[in-house]
Design brief:
The chain has about 220 residues and is mainly α. It has eight helices and two strands. A hairpin with a 2-residue loop joins strand 1 and strand 2. The relative contact order is 0.21.
């Protein structure tokens, strides 16, 4: 259950959702409404573009595959499926920051496939927090969060106990993603695609913070 998760998970979940919200907002504003942090819309668009534009379909396939490869990298570097202090999340967060910086570099030079690196960064992040005692924490999209929250409310209405800790974590993820969208809009207005350097920097700071916390705690 999420009630067994360590306290630092709340802060991490909010911050990661905030980062994903910024990245996704920049994608939506800068790439003809192309989402980066989740794939449902991209797969639908791929089905449409397969019938109308080969070049657009290839780009969408690259975005989808890059997201999966980013998740694969997390799976390769992390052992076990639980959230646990001591795992090398700092390494993966550093890699995520590098991917976002490289994406910024390529996109600022009109290399449209630079967006695939941002997608890989989101896939890597989404796979950071996986299963823990049957609970699932995702930070780059909200469909599952809203579904689980709705289920919890429905069960509470018929008298079943409401998992407050789980609800708080879900609300923090939603709030972080929403605030990230607001900040992403403001950043894009001033920096255009260079706005991706901000979530990249946030990843580096979060990586360093976790590294220091892990060393002190262990």
């Amino acid at each position: 259950m999420l009630t067994k998760l360590p306290k630092w998970v709340e802060y991490g979940a909010f911050t990661l959702a905030f980062i994903a919200g910024i990245v996704n907002a920049i994608g939506l504003l800068g790439f003809e409404h192309q989402a980066i942090s989740h794939l449902s819309g991209s797969v639908t668009l791929l089905g449409i573009k397969l019938m109308s534009s080969t070049s657009a379909a290839l780009l969408l396939m690259s975005i989808i595959l890059s997201f999966m490869l980013g998740s694969a990298l997390s799976g390769f570097l992390l052992t076990g499926g639980s959230l646990k202090l001591g795992r090398h999340y700092d390494t993966l967060l550093f890699i995520e920051g590098l991917l976002l910086l490289l994406s910024t570099y390529l996109l600022s030079r009109a290399h449209v496939y630079g967006i695939t690196l941002a997608s890989a960064a989101c896939g890597l992040q989404n796979a950071l927090a996986t299963n823990y005692s049957g609970a699932v924490v995702r930070t780059t999209h909200l469909t599952g969060i809203f579904t689980d929250l709705g289920l919890m409310i429905g069960k509470a209405l018929k008298g079943e106990p409401f998992d407050t800790r789980k609800g708080v974590i879900f609300i923090l993820i939603i709030a972080g993603f929403l605030l990230g969208g607001v900040c992403g809009f403001m950043l894009y207005e001033h920096l255009a695609l260079l706005a991706l350097t901000v979530p990249a920097g946030a990843c580096f700071i979060l990586s360093l913070t976790y590294r220091v916390y892990r060393i002190r705690a262990l």
